[in-house]
Design a protein that fits this description.
55% of the residues lie in helices and 20% in strands. By secondary structure, the chain is an alpha+beta fold. The protein has one domain. The strands form two sheets. The protein has a three-stranded antiparallel beta sheet with strand order 1-2-3.
């Protein structure tokens, strides 16, 4: 009879230890794998948003090329943007393209537009802090959008 009592006690102890391993596994999943999964999702959203901001910056640069002072170019060969208007047109294009994108609370602005050698460059900064938890802090994306254009002067392509 004592042998049977010891066997039952041993079985109870083994089942109690199995319960502990379930608890340890659950704690591990909750504290390690859960945050890693969440971080993976956030990094994916960041990468998608970065691509969308880059595309919008390229389109903003393309819009800005439409604001080159063509009359001045025909007279002197200089490539100059119409003052102030190019940045506003680029910002409008940027806003429209990001509005259509499935991003969450992304605020982007055109910092500057430059023109040199038939290439218009728009410098864009986007605040994507809302994509991450608060403890990450302030996160911004900085990209350069470019667009190339070609005018002709006196029937010759400008270089």
């Amino acid at each position: 009879m004592t042998t049977r009592l010891r066997d039952n006690t041993t079985i109870r102890r083994l089942s109690d230890e199995r319960g502990v391993s379930y608890i340890v596994s659950a704690v591990f999943l909750g504290t390690v794998l859960g945050p890693l999964l969440a971080l993976g999702i956030e990094i994916g959203r960041y990468a998608e948003t970065r691509v969308l901001v880059q595309q919008a910056a390229d389109l903003a640069a393309l819009a800005a090329t439409q604001e080159v002072d063509f009359a001045l170019f025909q007279e002197t060969g200089q490539e100059i943007l119409v003052s102030g208007r190019a940045q506003q047109v680029a910002q409008d294009y940027l806003n429209r393209n990001l509005q259509l994108a499935p991003t969450q609370h992304v605020v982007a602005r055109v910092g500057a537009i430059q023109i040199a050698g038939n290439v218009t460059t728009s410098f864009v900064e986007a605040d994507v802090t809302e994509l991450f938890p608060q403890f990450v802090g302030h996160v911004t994306i900085q990209v350069q959008g470019t667009a190339e254009f070609h005018f002709t002067r006196d029937g010759q392509r400008a270089r």
